[in-house]
Amino acid sequence: MITKTKPGYLLILGTASHVGKSAIVTAICRILSKEYRVAPFKAQNMSLNSWITADGKEIGIAQAIQAKAAGVEPTADMNPVLLKPKGDRQSQVIILGEPYADKAAGEYYDSIHTMHEILEGALRRLGEEYEIIVMEGAGGAAEINLYDRDIVNIGTARLTDAPIILVGDIERGGVFASLYGTLELLPDDVRANVKGFIINKFRGDIAILEPGLRQLEEKTGIPVLGVLPYSKLGIPSEDSVSIDDKAGSTPSDHDIEIAVIRFPRISNFTDFEPLENLAHIRYVDLDEDLGTPDAVILPGTKNTISDLCDLKKSRLYNQIKKFSGKGPIIGICGGYQMLGKIIYDSGVEGGENREYEGLGLLDIETTFKLYKKKTVQVTKAITAGGEIFDPIKGEAVSGYEIHMGNSTSKDFVFEDDGCIDSTGLIFGTYFHGLFENENIRNALIRYLYRKKGLEYIPEQNAVIDPYEDLADMVFENLDMSRLYEIAGLQLSQ
Question: Where is the CobB/CobQ-like glutamine amidotransferase domain (predicted)?
């Protein structure tokens, strides 16, 4: 067990996936960072939304967000194990930011003792630099079938002996039963460290909820620290669970629609969240029709070959090709590779040594030769022309790359990256985070407005810090003096 003399620990566990653990950790990191040096930590994350650190390491995007909220640079120690599902019960295992191997669940759990050592090392290194580590669990904490191999909930709790706050989501229904049941199913030593409850995503009159809160406290002896209202967060989504919320949303009143192809193995769909306030972003499953969007985006994917093969079997394949000439078609990472003529695979991506025909909309060829991933932050100049890029040609754009395979191109978009066709309307890039660049965002939306005979006036609102907004909401609705006490900290008056 790691000693608690330095640093302090706080562990946020949940009754299920998607109850709001990541957002709550983000808010707590921001709040505590005003008085303490704070680091986030999640022992093991399963997500296809990832981030590249300054030194080229790949971690879950949630920990990068939490580090930003805390005002510190994200590092691989904050998410030492990242699992990226590839399908067929296989996941790519990323250890300390580097690809380790593709493993089935059973194979991964066989190495769980090694993972414990990796976690302990990461926590020790963080403890040398930070005063308090705010840790996040994964999924539901009471997965009783996994207790002997659960490194992220039970393992982290035992490794640090941290005080625990348990979060439940009232939108799912049965929040009192889920909190009480999770508590009762925890191992005795872990249950003893549960010091508070948080109820999340509440809509309505809190007075109606009050009797239940008091009864829960009476039955468990554990205080409810507060009830957080339902709110639309301005921070990137953590994982694929969140995309279901987007896919089920009703069309907005935006004047333009952008269709994002929802590949079975879609990754880093957070790339398109900066566009959500400017256009209706519609995620299109492979068994749906493309419809009549103003632009089409092929996003990143954890397995380009498998998703390309699935796309070819669907009616969307021909619909995307027929859309050529009607509006922009944009490929990001794996989607960029699919827009090309040919993909050569030595077997590292699709499992077979063969070539695959792409959509043929860009003059590129991609080769998967080595089990090696490029992970780097990048800033480059816009070198492409055409109606979209001419107004911003020469300006800088920033992003990050996470991909296997290399693509040949002559008609670059950003210096030596990407490819654009002769019309200037079909282009692809390896840049993730492309639309976080205001110049790119405005150039695309302005073009789409102009094609519909509309005038686009970029919003000139003051920059709003989403982390501060989230922190304010949490601070106002939780008993912060008690939370500080649980964490062993002193709240300044």
Answer: 257-439
Catalytic-role residue among 18, 333, 403, 419: 333
User: Which residues, in sequence order, are bridge partners of residue 10?
Assistant: 134
Kindly tell me the sign of the dihedral angle through the C-alpha atoms of 364, 300, 373, 65. positive
pTM: 0.84
* Beta bridge partners of residue 159, listed in sequence order: none
SS3 77: helix
10-residue averages of pLDDT along the chain (493 residues): 70 95 96 96 90 93 95 97 80 89 70 85 96 96 91 95 97 94 97 97 91 96 95 62 50 85 90 91 95 96 93 96 95 96 87 90 92 89 96 96 90 95 96 94 96 85 72 94 93 67
Per the structure, how many domains does the chain have?
2
* Beta bridge mates, 58: 52
Single-letter code of the amino acid located at 412: F
432 flagged as catalytic: yes
Contact 154, 44 (CB under 8 A): no
Bond from prior residue into 40 cis (ω within 30 degrees of 0): no
Query: Which of 18, 280, 403, 432 is an active site residue?
Result: 432
Look at residue 192 and give its three-state secondary structure.
Answer: coil
Nearest-angstrom CA–CA distance, 149 and 119: 13
> Please, what is the end-to-end C-alpha distance for the chain in angstroms?
34
Work out the angle between the directed axes of helices 466-477 and 21-32 (0-180°, nearest 10): 90
Q: Cis omega (within 30 of 0) on the bond before 211?
A: no
* Together in a domain, 78 and 190: yes
> Both 228 and 283 in a single domain?
no
Q: Are residues 295 and 155 in the same domain?
A: no
Q: Which residues, 6 or more positions from 463, have their beta carbon under 8 angstroms from its beta carbon?
A: none
Q: Greatest CA span in the chain, whole angstroms?
A: 70
Structural domain boundaries, residue 307: 256-451
